[in-house]
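task queued by scheduler; priority normal; single chain, no ligands, no partner chains; default sampling; output format set to structure tokens
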Amino acid sequence: MTHVRGLISKFTPGRRVLAAAAITVVSALALTACGTTEDDGGRRAGSAGSSTASQQPSPEQAAAQALFDRFEKACPEPGVNSRRPTGASKPDTAEPETIAPGETPPADPIEPAPPTGPEAELDDRDWCVSAHHEQRVIAALQILADPTPAKVRKTLNGLGYTDERIHHLKQDGKKTRFHLDLREDGGRLCESGLAAGAVSDVVPCVAVAEGPFKVMSEVRP
């Protein structure tokens, strides 16, 4: 028995070292495998989730798109802007009349300057689509008591405008100002709104054509 214990004691340290080394290697491989699976799986799931979310609009987004499509079908084709002068004006070849000292210049009508801002940059289709949006938004805001930013957002959501289309909600005294992003297919239409009870107003504005929403031109209500 003593001899057997001696043999066991002689080889036990080596076995313990080998066993410990084997456990360490197996544990390291297991941890590495688990970590790789979790990280890769997380990235794949996140990517797929984002792709799915971008391809499948929410019910609210689908309802808003249906609203936009209905308004656009009721409006003319894009590209025509009757507010912008067409063609270059003919040069005035007549020599200017000289005015003698003390004489009053003729009271001829002065030609209006070319339009700028939304009138120059939005076409007839934009103005038509804008009118449809403005009518329903103004009607809803006029009956909104105490138009705080939270109440205005809720009202706009109820009309079909999702949060990603609502921008710059800001309290202004007892009123709330906001912008609506109405860009579609490279268009630049947006709305500048004022929620103020019976005197609420919404007017067209011009946004950048692509990228994050940014107002480039507006005449605020």
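post-processing summary
- The chain is about 45% helix and 15% strand.
- The first helix runs from residue 2 to 55.
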